Amino acid sequence: MLLGAQAAHLGALATRSRLRVLSPRRGVDFASNDYLGLAEAPLLRDAATDALARGVPVGSGGSRLLRGNHPEHEALEAEAAAFFGAESALFLPTGFTANSALLATLPQRADRIFADGLIHASCHEGLRLTRATHELVPHNDAGAFDARITAWRRAGGTGTPYIVVESLYSMDGDFAPLADLAEAAARHDAMLVVDEAHATGVFGPSGRGMVAGLPARPADVITLHTLGKGLGCEGALLCGPSVMREFLINRARGFIFSTAPSPLNAAIARAALCVCEAAGDRRADLITRMTTAREQLTALGAQCHGSPIMPLILGSDARTMAVAAKLQEAGFDVRGIRPPTVPPGTSRLRIVITLNAGIEDISDLADALHGVLV
Predict the structure, then answer these.
(1) What is d(CA 286, CA 277) in angstroms, rounded to the nearest whole number?
(2) If you write DSSP's letter for every residue of 192-227 in order, what string do you get?
């Protein structure tokens, strides 16, 4: 039978309660990364309408190096560089593409990448493809990064060390010790790469991310800002030194051989940056809802580190998916997360607080969760 091995593999996943399936949205949103509730907001719909009215095309028609490069792309990149405080920015279609292209391309053979053990899967893809050597470092342990780089230098390492972390971790909801990591990077002349995917729009001055909130911006830093989470649209921006942008344009296969992102989406992203800067009230409202959630959900075992992501670790794959299904039946869109996305034995409900769920919704979720867990 053709594809018999694949069918057997899928069967084994189902037996272990690890089979992934696509399911529609259902109930109140406690699953998305639309933290500020912008994905369906009139603000971005109006931006799309305005862009279409002034003739911005829906499709790009080719890669950026062919005819696909549009003034909206370049305007977005210039505005993003200014907004995030970088020399330059490069617009890519997804955060996955951005992370994998960056790590597969920028570090060279003599370099070594030191990545947090809980880094995004997109970074792991870049590590799989990179010319540099790499190693994983215990989660959020700045001292371990310092010690590992020191050991590499003593063993004869001569290239550039890269410290790769997330500012806000997507599955645990905790924050990286960025100030300590920035100090370590400065001591070792390392490039600090910070994935701000889940912080952009929510944290830092005017939602610029956690790096922007440091007392001083590190001299050698690259930040990734996704547009499809807190900013409510699509795509990703790599922000950093101008040489980074030029090198990726010339060497990153994920950029060179991809059809350029929609110019219309670039126009919407430009509007999203303007909305973000003026979204102080939305961020304050989100904090209020996060406070309510922390008070009610931590009593049921959820973890809270001060971010909108509040995981409830249940351990068992089967139990996690059963509890998620019961909550969905009760009208709450909560999703279960299992290995390999998270470490074995840590299957969890990933409860996310956004402006798409009100205070009463949060209280109702807590009541429903209590009823399911007892």
Answers:
(1) 15
(2) EEEE-TTTTTTSSGGG--TGGGSSS--SSEEEEEES
Among 167, 278, 271, which Cα is nearest to 227's?
271
State the total domains in the chain.
Answer: 2
Condensed to tens digits (0 to 9), the pLDDT of residues 285-335 reads 999 999 999 999 999 999 999 999 999 999 999 999 999 999 999 999 999
Pairwise CA distance, residues 123 & 96, whole Å: 8
| Maximum Cα interatomic distance, the chain, rounded to a whole number of Å | 62
Orientation of helix 71-84 relative to helix 263-277, angle to 10°: 30
Helices within 118-241 (DSSP H only): 121-129, 142-154, 178-187
Q: What is the CATH number of the domain that holds 344?
A: 3.90.1150.10
Which amino acids are annotated catalytic? Answer: 33, 120, 166, 170, 195, 198, 229
User: 283: part of which helix (H) or strand (E)?
Assistant: helix 280-297
Residue span of the structural domain in which 322 resides = 27-40+280-373
CA gap 361, 264 in Å, rounded: 34
Domain end marker among 245, 277, 309: 277
Distance in angstroms between the alpha carbons of the first and the last residue of the chain: 46
Distance CA 243, CA 35 (A): 32
By C-alpha distance, which of 319, 307, 374, 372 is closest to 345?
319
* Residue bearing tokens 């909560």: 334
- Within the chain, how many helices (H) and strands (E) appear? 13, 12
Domain match, 262 and 296 both: no
> How far is the C-alpha of 362 from the C-alpha of 5, rounded, in Å?
44
Residues of the chain falling short of pLDDT 50: none
Task: Classify strands 347-352 and 309-315 as parallel, antiparallel or unpaired.
Answer: antiparallel
Which letter does DSSP use for residue 54 in this model? T
Tell me the pTM: 0.94
